[in-house]
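Q: My collaborator sent me two sequences in one message, no labels, and asked for predicted structures for both. Can we handle them in order? The first one she listed is below.
A: Yes, handling them in the order given. First sequence, followed by its structure tokens:
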Amino acid sequence: MNLYTYEDACVPGVSNGDAKQPSNDAARVDLLGEHPQDDYSRYSDAADAAVRALADPSRIVHISYGDFPASDYLRDVTIQRGLSAYDTAKSIGADTALPADLVQGLWSMIVPIAEQLREFGVFGPRVEVPEDAPLQDRLLGLTGRQP
């Protein structure tokens, strides 16, 4: 959860166009403190507010791996978070069924760039899944996960 909090802590600065963002070493700092739920909510709420205030999604923002439109940055954060929900649930033995609208949204975002993300090492090799499988299973296979 601290990693998610760190990511949320970066969103306002990135969205505002700040050129200097915290290093990855900053992710090792405990941002959750004595009241982890409250602290997580505070960072999450600030990230949400920054995204809602972003008037121009095509605005170039600065992230550790280059300069990109804010919409690309937010897309990448959304993909990472959405897939992490599945990965986390699987790792702790919880129900891995994702909400249908999340699966559809991730599918729509990932399909056009899946091979590019695979080339960058974001996804492992595609796992073959029958075309008539549920969309979540096809999404998992597309992203290199075994459904």
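Q: And the one she listed second?
A: Here it is, processed independently of the first:
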Amino acid sequence: MALRFEVQTLVPRPIEEVFDHVVEPGLLSSYFTSEASGPLEPGRTVRWTWPSGETETVDVEAVERNRKVVFTWKAFRVDTRTRVTILFATPESGRTEVAIVEEGWDGDAAGTASAFEHCAGWEHMLLCLKARMAFGIDLRG
């Protein structure tokens, strides 16, 4: 059985701004990564670096402006590539719902532990995004 999870939050900003904060390297680096080698665009491979020095490569499969971003990357501590889908919606004017779905782990102990690490990481990313966009706060430091 393959594991999957979804996390989400509501950001009190217009969808265009929230989307840009996920796909544009300078904006993404203002709250989540310390560096991104380029924007998230279909067919592109982008390297993300975090303040801790860790890096990861994401292979972008699809981008639909203000709707979704899909990429694959290597899962934490297991030899698996997972698929991440970031969805954007506007449940009400001036607010954006961001949902992140990640899937593809084996249901064994190692896969489950890796999935929990990723789930916590995406929750942290969404909190950092919301704090940055709503209050101008960088929770990283």
